[in-house]
Batch of 2 targets.
Target 1
Amino acid sequence: MQKINFLNGSIRFLTAAIMMSATVAKSDILINGAGATFPQPLYSRWFSDYRKVDKSIAINYQGVGSSGGIRQLLTGTVDFGASDEPMNAEEAAKAKSVIHHIPTAMGAVAVSYNLPGNPALKLTPDVVTDLFMGIITKWTDPRIGASNPGVKFPNLPVTIAYRSDGSGTTAIMTEYLSAVSATWKAKPGQGKSVKWPVGIGGKGNAGVAGMIKQNPGTLGYIELVYAASNNLPVAAIKNAAGQFVNPSIATVTSAAKAKIKEIIAADFKLSLVNSPGKDAYPVSSMTWLLVPESMAAAKSVPFSSFLKWAMGDAAQKTAESLHYAALPKEVRTAALERIGKIKFK
């Protein structure tokens, strides 16, 4: 099992964020956002920390999933959104103004499981795919054992846990499965919501993590920080270079460094899935804040200041303390330039 020492602060940060929103003074500027649960622990910490930098601004964030955040942004019920997958053309066409994708940090979608003794597993792309397809149904299947010599697997059925809500985490995982399997790409395919062949759905990363933790034999996909906070093991997955790689800050960073020029050229909206390089974790992703140009000036000016703060070394080090990977400096420099050019109304 990969050892991940998680700072118990995540729950404190979430609690602090709730308390903060309850104690906002009438004179304060309240900015509301909603979206991905993937970065929710980080955003809760950042918004709490930034409250100390600028006491006149309070940023409230609800983790409702990427699809929910985009939906609320498009209907105007929140000031900004957040997603682990860039908005598609159909979503962008419904927007009342240009929406900028500002990258904030990077993370790994981990394949996590609950087995007796929680052995460290190595999984090949075809095995990962066939587990989620429901083709491999028992933990004693010899295909799992082939890459895990010496591991004694229990005679348990494999139960799959997946996201029931529209999710950027699902989009990342299904993009990976589509990249390594023509069968998966044809059906179920890629997206924030897909029809899973087998399994049980849970709401949010926290919901799926809870299902894995409570049910022996369960395997699912969750953001690394949720595996860490629940003391769940994560599998090493064979990457495009043929190496078994564990999800970590270092391996997500390797995935991004292989594509820095492409990230900037693509206006930050680029996938890190299956990046080249022997140390690249294959199910890596950036996460974005969705910032509309229609944001009112009273809110856009302080929020722009927050975005610039988030690109700083201190904020990015906080991200790393919570098991997210900091953005490469070249990407942060380009993002700062973009933030400065946003034409708010």
Note: The domain at 9-106+287-341 is CATH 3.40.190.10 (D-Maltodextrin-Binding Protein; domain 2).
Target 2
Amino acid sequence: MRQLRSILYNKEMQHRMEEQAKVEAGKKKIEWGSQIRSYVFDDRRVKDHRTNFQTSDVNGVMDGKIDGFIKAYLMEFADKGE
């Protein structure tokens, strides 16, 4: 019984590690130039570099009005599964 339990445990751990590896593979590196959005207060502009969506409502974006960015992202990447 112990051996069977050990085998089942190892299989489950292997499955979990494979699932975690899939998640990790989808992550982007955090490094210079990989930012997704620029906030330029002097020019009154916020731009999403992934979708090229931009707005001049900097204060609105800072207050949480990001529906335009979300919609642009979904429209751009919805069918790509990212």
Note: The mean pLDDT is 85.
